Task: structure prediction
Amino acid sequence: MLVYGLKNFRINDSWYCKEGDTYHAFFLQTAVSGDPQSCGHMVSDDLIHWDYAGVVLQGEKDTWNDVGIATGSVVKYSGRWYMLYTGVAGGENTGGIGVAVSDDLFAWARVGDGPVIKIGVQETPYGMGYPFQWNGETINCYPLADPYIYPEPVDGEYYIFVNSQAADLPYNRRAAMAIFKTRDFKSFVPYKLAVLDDCDRIETCQVWKHGGKYYMYGGRVYAKQMEDGTVSGWENGNWIFTSDSFTGPYMPIQKLELIRDASRPEGGLYIAKVLEDPAGKEVMLINHIPYGAVGPYPVHYLPDDTIALEYKNRV
Result:
């Protein structure tokens, strides 16, 4: 069942938080008229009925983020809400991952005049890219987008998982999920890799714990290469990774073959999040591109650590 969407808008990646009894969905929205992508906001008390609350972030002319917004995540720290978001830039600007802050989740203000994490192939305080630890060696990586903040601090620090690529590895071997740490949402320190995978990138991840196992959802993307090595397109899929440790290493164990609603045979099911519903049960909301979010589908954990979705209220 489509639980939220917007007429005349394409809806893409979503991320969520909860304050009291109210769920907040933040998502990427692009008007069919061609306006740049911005971050929209919906609220709900049951994950089924949602009300639109407007645009909370968009590109700003004459700044480092002068085009649009891409995926982020939200967490509460020191009594205020913080959003890490991907800022898209054009011209001489390079974009990056920025910080915005809010007291109520409705009105947001950018912090600072530049990104806190640089993206793409550019120089950082550490040289070209950022250094991360992996199996006892240092791997240099370029963050791309999609910061995911683990919602609870661990030993006083917040851990941010970022869709990245290893600088010295080829197509379809360079996908890295890089972890940064912060204590104050001002300084972000490269830590280690949670994943180094045989695909090209892992988009819009989420990390959660169930029982004694840690789970990671991510959109695993592969480059389709021609015989001469050039890329002719991309393939993606919804994947579950698991680990015995919060920071990894995570291994891919399951490709989620998602079932679409019979009433909407077109479009794509890509990028999902697991949340607790009002009864405390784990459910999944899935982006049905370009329409919005479908679900919520109860999540069941199987003996082999894979998951299965219960497709209720599908039409």
Notes: The radius of gyration is 19 Å. The first strand starts at residue 2 and ends at 5. DSSP finds no helices and 24 strands in the chain.
